[in-house]
Design goal:
By secondary structure, the chain is an alpha+beta fold. About 7% of the residues have low confidence. The protein contains 3 helices and 4 strands. 28% of the residues are buried. It starts with 40 loop residues before the first helix and ends with a strand. Helices cover 17% and strands 32% of the residues. The structure holds zinc ion (ZN). Zinc ion binds next to α2.
Amino acid sequence: MARRPHRQTRPARTTPAPSPVSPSTASPCPCGRPVSYGECCGRYHVGPATAPTAEALMRSRYSAFVVLDASYLLRTWDPATRPNGLELDPTTRWTGLDILETTDGTPFHTTGTVTFRASYTQQGHPGALHERSRFTRHDGAWVYVDGTYLD
Ligand SMILES: [Zn+2]
């Protein structure tokens, strides 16, 4: 995910913005795998462990959006396409990740793609981001290159 979803016309805000989610390491991982955050994406966020596959990196980047870890998103971004900075919108609540398809991206590849649907609510309105992301290796570790929005 390169950026937050396109905003629709925004109705006047009637509820306070939700506070950022800070899961404990024992909470279920936001990426949806049936393991704790600390055993799953959290250990990549903390480092020095790095995601072994493009899918694991995709999951950990989704979880980074959930926990508002912009620095993780930037350091797992290909330097060739990485923005100078990233502001995450705390009013977007990411509610689920579905991995739909992967190509390559294993420990034996140097590139890969992950197609996913990430669900969210924004100002109480549900939405979904359907994207095919491209990944490559940089200094041995998987990094996000860019993504194509799908319908
Ligand atoms: Zn996870």
